[in-house]
Design goal:
The complex is a heterodimer of chains A (358) and B (362).
Chain A: H1 2-8, H2 13-32, E1 44-46, E2 49-51, H3 53-60, H4 62-78, H5 85-101, E3 107-108, H6 115-139, H7 144-162, E4 168-170, H8 173-176, E5 181-182, E6 185-186, H9 187-205, H10 208-217, H11 219-224, H12 229-254, E7 257-258, H13 267-277, H14 289-309, H15 316-331, H16 333-357
Parallel strand pairs in A: 3-4
Antiparallel strand pairs in A: 1-2, 4-7, 5-6
Chain B: H1 2-30, H2 33-45, E1 54-60, H3 66-78, E2 85-91, H4 96-109, E3 113-116, H5 125-134, E4 138-141, E5 153-156, H6 159-177, E6 183-188, H7 194-210, E7 213-219, H8 224-237, E8 244-247, H9 250-263, E9 274-279, H10 282-290, E10 295-298, H11 304-315, E11 323-325, E12 330-332, E13 339-342, E14 345-351, H12 354-359
Parallel strand pairs in B: 1-2, 1-3, 3-4, 4-5, 5-11, 6-7, 6-8, 8-9, 9-10, 12-14
Antiparallel strand pairs in B: 10-12, 13-14
The chains are: A mainly alpha (358), B alpha/beta (362).
Chain lengths: 358, 362
């Protein structure tokens, strides 16, 4: 009993529980369809590549997972959200593809510049956008949502300008690698894993994680304690922009083209939702990166579930909304308090009964 | 002091916003510098005189796709000065407010005809009434206007016929190939788009009649990424169960092909899966030529020649039809089916060769 209690009190318990809940929906559906209960969880090798629903979730959820890293830091340090990440993705994808296509745009098969130049340019663009947001928030004290609203509209528009309002195709195998496979493993999955690993190590091995939390909890007190609060917030936004740049490259490489109108569309909302689903407070302060990552994959799990259930596209958003409501409600403090009270009551009743028995 | 600052700020704001408005109208008139002058001439001298140019205002949606660019190009080619027209073209960049202003600008210029490709289908009654009062006939192309009928005619595609044609071709193709069972997967376009509704309806009609199985129909949002993700999921849900994939536009088909490559499913001519798309942009026709895709069904962007016909009818004092459907072509990779019958009309299936591809304008 006490072990179970300990388990449920872990910070990551609820995010993981919600993810399992979503996966269970598939299991129940598969059984009701007369398939094996493990049908959804089966991982196999098809055409020498890893395949299976779980692989799809990990693969397709990579962009949101990468965005969620940056978003978690931003939320924690500045108690606000960066709503420009989706547009920055589109911009960096546009810059990357336009550079790679060169004069052959919008239909290129050969790379005009070395691959690394295009990718680095995309990452630099991401960082610059992040720095812009960061400067507005950290040094000019503008509300994060208002500050990032600028790039939310502008970045996609600049991206469209860069691409001359056309879809720029770069049908090149080397470029397709970022969204394809290395050996049997999907590359986006590897990229996401590397990003998570690097950030985790940096946060754990240096005091940066602690600094971010302390700035988020109380900016003034942190400054008095000797932390450069503004610099830390600025850094978080730059990191968030970098993450958006990486996600943009992955997304455009998947389709070997820069569809600036559609890449990263509404991804900022998914990224924010991922942070919330991970049990992080959007009011800033303490954060749990692992929770956000699980949240990101939960969102993708919901999408994949919709495909598995064959829910018609018209009612799909409603289904998604219902699942999100359940997940968020389970994690809401009043609901948590209610369950705590319930279990306490039971405990008390038991004790009373025990006393009577004696 | 405070009041003075406030007044100054307000004054500046007003001046700036006025300047912004001025800039807008300025650009629309400067785009057709000579047009306004000769337009006035044409309207005063009446439509009978053949020496004057006919002025046409065209409020285009934007230039978001190859299809749209082809549509614009078509208008610029047809309404050229050699053909006796003066075109005022405005690209509205997918902003419906800009489009309304553009149309009002045309009225002020006093053009002879206005062509609108409406960005949104509602909110048009007021401005179309203004056009009517000014005596300028309005021709709507491509997308539709739902809340007003104060336009002369609408020229566009019949999406249901496209869907029907796809079904009829598939039927004839399957018969010729000896395929008895059709298990189709559909990758739909954006939910609620008229193209999605029409193409789904048309294909489903044939499928129901022929007793085909439509295994699943999911939304791919008309994008390559959408098509890829949906197809990836299909490849797992219906592994080895499907032999037809219907993509409701070209980009979804590109995505579906990448997903099938990854899953090791063979498609196209000589493949296990028949894959078709709608729109027929040049890269798609190229895929058909190479045998990666079995067929593609055109959605014709070249509305301008049809519009010109309407204008000529109006000039001659005739009344054109209220709805005009454009001719569209169907392209196939193999020379097996030469024609199909849709709604009692026989339509040819074009076998794609290098010449056909080279002749494609977009």
């Amino acid at each position: 009993m006490s072990k179970l209690k300990k388990l449920t009190q872990q910070q990551l318990f609820l995010p993981i529980f919600c993810m399992i809940l979503v996966l269970c929906v598939n299991m129940i559906y598969d059984v009701s369809q007369g398939r094996d209960f493990y049908e959804f969880f089966k991982i196999g090798i098809q055409n020498e590549l890893l395949s299976g629903r779980l692989v799809n979730i990990l693969n397709r959820g990579s962009e949101v997972a990468i965005l969620a890293i940056g978003m978690t830091l931003v939320v924690s340090s500045s108690a606000g959200t960066d709503i420009s990440v989706g547009s920055v993705m589109a911009l960096s994808a546009g810059v990357c593809c336009t550079l790679l296509a060169g004069a052959a745009a919008p239909q290129a098969t050969e790379l005009a510049v070395p691959l690394i130049v295009g990718v680095l340019a995309a990452l630099v663009v991401g960082c610059v956008c992040g720095a812009f947001n960061g400067a507005l928030v950290a040094y000019l004290n503008i509300q994060p949502m208002v500050a990032t609203l600028i790039l939310w509209t502008a970045a996609r528009a600049i991206g469209l300008l860069v691409c001359n309002n056309l879809i720029v195709y770069v049908r090149n195998d080397a470029f397709a690698m970022f969204g394809g496979y290395i050996g049997p493993v999907p590359t986006p999955l590897i990229i996401a894993a590397v990003c998570i690993a690097v950030v985790t190590v940096v946060l754990k091995k240096s005091a940066l994680g602690l600094y971010i939390q302390s700035v988020g909890i109380n900016k003034k007190a942190s400054r008095i304690a000797g932390l450069n609060s503004q610099k830390i917030i600025f850094l978080c936004y730059v990191l968030c922009g970098l993450c958006a740049g990486i996600a943009g490259v992955v997304a455009s490489s998947r389709i070997t083209s820069a569809d600036t109108n559609n890449i990263g569309l509404n991804f900022e909302l998914d990224a924010i939702l991922a942070v919330a689903l991970g049990g992080n407070s959007l009011a800033g302060g303490k954060f749990n990166l692992a929770g956000s990552i699980i949240g990101a994959y939960t969102i993708q799990a919901i999408t994949t579930t919709m495909y598995n259930l064959g829910v018609s596209s018209a009612v799909n958003p409603v289904f998604k909304a219902v699942i999100v409501i359940v997940i968020v409600a389970v994690q809401a403090p009043p609901v948590k308090a209610f369950f705590k009270k319930l279990s306490a009551k039971r405990q008390a009743e038991k004790e009373v009964k025990g006393a009577v028995g004696v | 002091m405070k009041k003075k600052v406030l007044a100054l700020t307000l004054g500046l704001t007003m001046a700036l916003s006025l300047a912004a408005c001025g800039g807008n109208t300025g650009s629309s008139t400067s785009g057709s510098g000579a047009a306004s002058g000769s337009g006035a001439d044409a309207s005063t001298s009446g439509s009978g005189s053949s020496g004057d140019l006919i002025t046409v205002g065209f409020a285009q949606v934007g230039h978001e796709s190859d299809w749209r660019t082809a549509s614009t190009q078509s208008a610029q080619d047809v309404f050229s000065e050699e053909n006796g027209y003066q075109l005022s073209f405005i690209d509205c960049d997918n902003d419906s407010a800009t489009q309304l202003e553009a149309v009002r600008g045309f009225i002020q210029q006093g053009v002879d005809y206005i062509i609108i490709d409406p960005i949104v289908s509602t909110g048009w009654d007021a401005v179309l009434t203004e056009c009517e009062d000014a005596g300028i006939p309005v021709i709507v192309i491509d997308r539709t206007i739902d809340d007003s009928d104060k336009y002369v005619t609408w020229v566009g595609s019949d999406f249901k016929t496209e869907g029907l044609a796809c079904g009829e071709w598939l039927k004839a193709y399957a018969e010729a190939k000896g395929i008895t069972e059709i298990n189709a997967l559909v990758i739909e376009g954006s939910t609620g788009a008229s193209a999605t509704i029409g193409r789904t309806e048309g294909f489903k009609e044939v499928a129901d009649r022929e007793g085909w199985t439509i295994l699943d129909s999911q939304n791919g949002d008309f994008t390559e990424a959408g098509g890829q993700e949906v197809m990836e999921s299909y490849c797992q849900s219906y592994e080895g169960q499907f032999n037809v994939v219907i993509c409701q536009n070209d980009n979804e088909a590109y995505g579906a092909m990448t997903a099938m490559d990854a899953a090791g499913v063979s498609y196209g001519v000589d493949g296990d899966v028949i894959i078709v798309s709608f729109d027929s942009n040049k890269p798609a026709v190229q895929h058909v030529l190479e045998g990666n895709m079995n067929a593609t069904f055109e959605c014709n962007p070249m509305a301008a020649p049809f519009v010109e016909e309407v204008i000529q009818q109006l000039e001659a004092g005739e009344t054109p039809e209220k709805e005009i459907y454009m001719d569209e072509s169907w392209f196939a990779a193999e020379d097996i089916v030469s024609s199909i019958t849709v709604d009692g009309t026989e339509m040819p299936i074009i076998h794609v060769t290098q010449e056909v591809l080279d002749a494609r304008p977009y």
